[in-house]
Design a protein that fits this description.
This protein is mainly beta and 318 residues long. Helix content is 9%, strand content 43%.
Length: 318
């Protein structure tokens, strides 16, 4: 099927960057990268559309697999003090083995879509690639729910604004900027991997780009329209089931401030098993009226987050 569903979002994102730097356009590998004067690229894996990669904390380094999440601001990893069943499957931070560990007071609770945890504040050197962030405050998770164990994660590294912090101290990227470890307050993610004329229009809508969300989520009425045009049927939990034969499905194109982003079926059809496939377009889990452009949207793109100018830009991977 050569049909294309064209989906228009007007006034999406507070300030969409139409132009990105030449260096950004040249990025070809799957990576999380900050704009610095040294090799700061960190390769990451795509586990169920989540952006995950390795960081290390302490001296000597203790390595953890974390999700790079633009929808939250805290950094936390599982602690050796954690007694939850989920922690038994994770790499756990041992403060006693780090010479640069500093004790902090206070604890906090965070709730995510996949679960919740309780963490105590700690301080240590945190390394991402060749960047060493000194005196980074992070959370040692002492309890966590089972949702985190199922994603092969040891923790989360939040990259959102300071206003979303639950714990003590500044987010990691703020400290990178403050300590002069990056030349520009910009980081990027790169991920490679309804018949003709039909259009769904969401005028005046807003969206966020969230590396910690798997699907594209939006208001029920628009999500239903998109899935109807694809030929999908309601399934459960706001998701839709569809044929697993992607040759029978159309591309879906988002027009954002005059720029087109096309999502092919190979990206938006998610196989649960041999007999069940779901689309990557699902109803928001809250009453929020904005869209969440998660991993399904970001596949095949470099997504640039400009913290200083509060804008987001996209580029295709060449």
């Amino acid at each position: 099927m050569n049909s294309i569903i064209c989906f228009t979002l007007l006034c999406v994102l507070s300030a969409l960057a139409r132009n990105v730097t030449e260096d950004f356009m040249r990025i070809q590998l799957e990576s999380f990268r900050v704009q610095g004067g040294r090799d700061t690229r960190v390769g990451y894996e795509n586990i169920s559309q989540l952006n995950t990669g390795k960081i290390c904390i302490g001296t000597p380094c203790q390595t953890f697999n974390v999700m790079f999440d633009t929808g939250s601001s805290d950094v936390w990893v599982s602690s050796t003090r954690c007694r939850s069943d989920s922690c038994k499957l994770q790499n756990r931070y041992n403060a006693a083995k780090s010479s640069t560990y500093r004790r902090r007071t206070g604890q906090y609770q965070i709730r995510y879509g996949s679960g919740e945890l309780v963490a105590v504040n700690a301080q240590d050197t945190l390394r991402i690639g060749k960047i060493a962030v000194k005196n980074q405050v992070f959370g040692e998770a002492e309890t966590s729910t089972s949702g985190f164990a199922s994603n092969a994660l040891d923790g989360i590294l939040g990259l959102a604004f300071e206003s979303l912090v639950h714990g003590d101290g500044l987010p990691v990227f703020y400290n990178m900027v403050e300590q002069g470890l990056v030349t520009e307050p910009i980081f990027t993610f790169c991920k490679s991997i309804i018949s003709v004329g039909n259009k769904v229009t969401c005028r005046g809508c807003h969206a966020i780009v969230d590396s910690g969300t798997t699907l594209i989520r939006g208001p029920e009425e628009y999500i239903k329209d998109v899935n109807d045009l694809i030929g999908a049927e309601p399934y459960e939990s706001g998701q839709y089931k569809v044929t697993c034969d992607i040759t029978q499905l159309p591309d879906v194109t988002f027009n954002i401030n005059g720029n087109s982003v096309t999502i092919p079926p190979i990206n938006y059809v998610l196989s649960e098993n041999d007999d069940l496939c779901l689309t990557g377009f699902a109803v928001s889990q809250s009453t929020a009226t904005f869209w969440i452009l998660g991993g399904v949207f970001q596949d095949g793109l470099c997504t640039l987050f400009d913290m200083e100018r509060k804008r987001v830009g996209f580029a295709t991977i060449r």
